[in-house]
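Entry for the shared binder. Reason: the reviewer on the internal report wants the predicted structure included alongside the sequence.
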Amino acid sequence: MSAVPKDLDRLRLAGDAALPAPPQPLPAELLPVEPFPLDALPDAFRPWAGDVADRMQCPLDFVAVPMLVGASMLVARRISIMAQARTDWRERANLWALIVGRPGAMKSPAMQQALAPLERMEVRAALAHTAEMEAFKVDVLAHKLRSDVGEKTAKGILSKNRDADVREHLSGDEPMAPTWPRYLVNDLTYEKLGALLSENPEGVLSVRDEMRGLFLHLAREESAPARAFYLQAWSGGRYTFDRIGRGTVTVEDARLSMIGCIQPGPLSELVQQARRGSSDDGMLDRFLIAWPDASGDWREVDRWPDTPAKRTAWGVFDRLDTLDATNIGAQIDTDAQGEARGLPFLRFAADAREAFSEWRHELEATLKGAENESLEAALSKFRHHVPALALVIHVIDGGSGPVTLRSTLRALMLAEYFESHARRLHGSGRRVMVRAARAILGKARSGALPDPFTARDVYRKDWAGLSDRQTVADALDVLAVHGWVWEATAETGGRKTTIYGLTDGARHG
């Protein structure tokens, strides 16, 4: 039980007099966000994304963002973008994104619809690989038979002439097993992911219905090597695994795209953990965030899919899968011997580069005035996101030559959208705080807390969302500032303790 000061009535009166009445409304839990800009989508994606979202009665974001990320993986396999006219500032087109929503918000089904063309490619590749493996088994058997016969012949010759040259009778190297081309991966270790990327150097897309598990795994101290690999796979570049017993595996240019779902509560907790210093290495900052408001009134939609729109969108994925960068005017670097080096690339057209440069100046000013370090870190990654999005939109729309102003302006529209969602994410610490404040208010009003009470009376109960001391302290500050509780200092056992109680306005409001 809390220690109660002798002069409690005086403290109550002093506390009530010091706080405004009636209490002021508590702040909203979440910052407002921009709706997804349908006009920013590539022309070929817009009808199909809208059709899926309407039939599923889910936010457009849940379809459009995975669709963009899936296409970006295919583009990143073939081409990159040089973000300036004369420097070698290169950005790969791979993107990472999180779609955020409560359970039952149709996140996973919408994502499955958006990525269905890639699922079809994955199935086709698996079937082709199975056929190739059957042929490979025959080749291995034939090689063994030839080797056996050749060895027998060679032994016969050598038995008569030990100096005879029998090399022509001996078979060469065994046939190489065919590589399984991959497009999508799900739950796997980072070593296995590295092995897959070494076999598929053009990149793959990691898809997870629930991203929380991956974040928690990577946050462990023993997972530091895995975390480092993921960070490298976002940026691109060479990565080498050296393992005793496994030898050396080299990924020439790690290009990983990633899309996944997560619920608001776990995501807010991850932001709080990063702010406290644990796992604050920019992992979460690399993700584009799609955290839309809940859809409006639900209505039943029972109609056939828009088949022409679907066929057009799926056709884009097929075209990107076989894209030849040189056919769309891409350039390529060469080494001293004139050999091709690195990914082919495009640059911005002059007017597009001017628009990008203007946006970049605004971004750098925004970074200096960011509300907190985590938001600054997230917004700094838009230096990658915007060129990547501009390139992806340009190629999806069938563009050739320098990335156009039209594609760049669409990328900037998406940047404005994603920035608002990043601000919601990195302001979501107040979501935890405001929810905790509402919970404390409810407990106090119901009599579950003593009158008056201390912060310890709250967090020692281990109630959901109220077990963390700092969260409880922040929530009580919010309640005090907005006039829902009074606070006073009391002497309890020779120690000063802050006590709280409901104001009259809170009791009767």
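Summary line for the report: The chain has two domains: 8-29+429-508, 38-123+181-187+259-426.
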